[in-house]
Amino acid sequence: MDNTDAPNEPVITSYAKAPARTVTAGGVSYAYRELGPKGGIPVVFFVHLAATLDNWDPRIIDPIAKNRHVITFDQPGVGASTGRVPDNIEAMADDAYTFIKALGFDKIDVFSFSLGGMIAQDLALKHPDRVRKLVLTGTGPRGGKDIDKVVGTTYRDILRATLTRSDPKEFLFFNRNATGKPAAKAFIKRLQERTIDRDKPISTRAFQTQLKAIQAFGRSAPSDLSTLTHPTLIANGDNDRMVPSVLSEDLHRRIKGSELIIYPDSGHGGIFQHHTRFAPAVVEFLAP
Length: 288
Prior knowledge:
- The chain is α/β, with parallel strands linked by helices and about 290 residues long.
- The chain has helices spanning about 60-65, 90-100, 115-125, 150-165, 170, 180-190, 205-220, 245-255, 270-275, 275-285, and strands at about 20-25, 30-35, 45, 70-75, 110-115, 130-135, 230-235, 260-265.
- Helices cover about 35% and strands about 15% of the residues.
- Helix 1 links the parallel strand 3 (about 45) and strand 4.
């Protein structure tokens, strides 16, 4: 992977064409991609359970990258990053901090989804000065009701997907109805738009360790989110079976001054199903 920009390199605003790079810190080689114009505060994306760099929806990333420097990355032990996946969210937040520091950023905006949102909360709590704005989608607070049940839901839906030769995200992220099914197919298709230099899939062991960390997060005592003073946007579908939608409302109550968007007739992947509405809303929220 290349770490340097060519002179007068044109600005890439398509995630399908974002160059793959690495940076080494703390003995770990972090795989990441970047796009959009450099300068100013970057938007760093924190991805979901079992996901790699190839799991971000270009219909959300590309509109943000039009005017912002966007960075996606693999946590240690995931995809093309070396190292091992920790079995707790706090350590994942420490790893994210190490990565951000290695790139030399004093301040970032955070875009997070699901597991990424749990990591983002810990990062913002531990290093409040490092974060300017916070986007928390499809996620919930530490100790949130039924977060620990995500393990059972995930395994059940993986089995259902295997039996129907489908992608598990079609079951986990979308309602199995007349609007959800086509939205799921369209989302999975968009994830295939990048055809070169794709990431390595997550290993079974890494995936199981992430599940263990989510379970522990759900069973832990709540964090004091009242200390978060960052402008925060929270979004979800109204029927999230993985991280129940009520937990988005719980986050909204706990984080003073936060904004909440709940999309109708959609599940865990509500922001992907409703990307035509969500992308402009998040671009406006993240404006400098």
